[in-house]
């Protein structure tokens, strides 16, 4: 019985003695079912992406394509000529996922770096520096956490339109790159908890707040900064509504927008499922890699995001 | 609130800092400058501007015309507004109870059965995907003809289901999809909450002969209250703003059965160019969410008194 939990602690080992572990087995079965339900759709995405367009109809119920092919990836990445893509079952809709991938990477990268850095500066000022109006301004930031996106998106759309930034990367990153109320709040809480002694000593040695921020505070805050960067990466990689409003031109689509357009471009009839699933898999890959490379960190960051 | 928890007196240093006040104020303002610009232009201004636009009629092309409270009166008399609100509430009622219940159970399973980071990683995979991808994946899996789910159902007494294409099933289907997306992540938050409960409480309960089920209802659930309130209220606020999944899967159809509030606002703003009416409705949504946030404050206080 105890072999069920080889790593179990004392209380885990004791428990099964009291009751026959039927409850435990049922719990395990449920858990495995949920794990299966969580990852099975991803498997179907991959399976469909590897299926040739004609086989899609004959092998709809099977779990593995009889003749796996990479042609769907090739055509959505624009590696095939339009004629060849259509011959391979393409619907004639053409969105360059390679461009979208690049845009997504630039969009996410700029925002993660900018937002984390500028928010850290502001958070440091709110946590450590004294200046008139500080608490009032910070309270405004806190209130802003509650405003729903749609309230801001309409006027922001007009602002960006007036700036002539529709369809441009500056227009897409503008609302996010300088700050997010959550990032400022999150980092301020952490900076408050840092011991003051090191900073005080540096002050006495004549260091400026700038030096202290760059040489002491930032290096001491790598954990929370990485956590924030992970949360921002996931959020921005998946951001749909804003780029969807701003990017009306194919050259500026991000991946979620490109996918949506690719889907709606399909002439009436069935969508180009194999192409869509290849595009979907391409969009999944980077976050999936993030999880594989930084697994524990990602899980902990997400768990932490709830305890703000 | 602003002072953190200074543990040691540091009089020498703090007088040194007080003397430096003017220069510190300058640095402080410099540090918050980027964040303030971002905040002022993309949060504060749009919030006020949105409020202002909501009292006008504006199609983005000609000048806005002040109409007083007309947009708000219109909303009150617009059956489509009420229907959109009703559909949103219906969605929230499908989504939240099931999602919360499943997440808590899953968290207990995580706590009692597996410590494996790998399993937790698998469970949060859905959360890492954008709503667009998730919408796309389920659109495919639930496709009436070729979708794997209907391929399976066809061989059972249940038979094929229309899912998105059926007015009665569309909202529950969208709710289920978002439960799928958020369940693992919410479970992770509850799991983090469970870790905060002292083990000694459980040991005491075990000594008193408390059964598993009893312990769960009498100890685990009450002590989880603060996390529960947090998860519940943030997910309710998020649920009221459902847009992405609808935009990708049903676009409000069939026959308006999934035209949720934010989708209706979006249509008014960017399809009918009724900016005034759209912002008025977003303000109403904002007011609704503020009420929920105030409720959150209430419940959170109740949660705190529950802890000890």
Automatic annotation (TrEMBL), chain A:
Q: Mind telling me which residue stretches traverse the membrane in this protein? A: 25-46, 105-127, 136-158, 164-187, 273-293
Give the SUPFAM superfamilies listed for this entry: MetI-like
- InterPro entries the UniProt entry points to: MetI-like, MetI-like_sf
- Membrane topology designation: Multi-pass membrane protein
Is this entry keyworded Transport? yes
Q: What is its main location?
A: membrane
Top-rank taxon:
Bacteria
Q: Does the keyword Cell membrane apply?
A: yes
Per UniProt, the keywords (alphabetical) are:
Cell membrane, Membrane, Sugar transport, Transmembrane, Transmembrane helix, Transport
- What's a single GO BP term from this record? transmembrane transport
Taken from the UniProt entry, a GO cellular component term is: plasma membrane
Q: Where in the cell is it found?
A: Cell membrane
Q: Where is the ABC transmembrane type-1 domain?
A: 101-294
Q: Which family does it belong to?
A: Belongs to the binding-protein-dependent transport system permease family.
Q: What's the protein called, per UniProt? A: Putative ABC-type sugar transport system, permease component
Origin species, per record, is Deinococcus gobiensis (strain DSM 21396 / JCM 16679 / CGMCC 1.7299 / I-0)
State the organism's lineage: Bacteria, Thermotogati, Deinococcota, Deinococci, Deinococcales
Automatic annotation (TrEMBL), chain B:
Q: Which top-rank group of organisms is this from?
A: Bacteria
GO terms for CC? Answer: plasma membrane
**Tell me, which GO biological process terms does this entry list?**
transmembrane transport
Record's keyword annotation contains Nucleus = no
Q: Tell me if tRNA processing is a UniProt keyword of this record.
A: no
Topology term for the membrane: Multi-pass membrane protein
Q: What is this protein called?
A: Putative sugar ABC transporter, permease protein
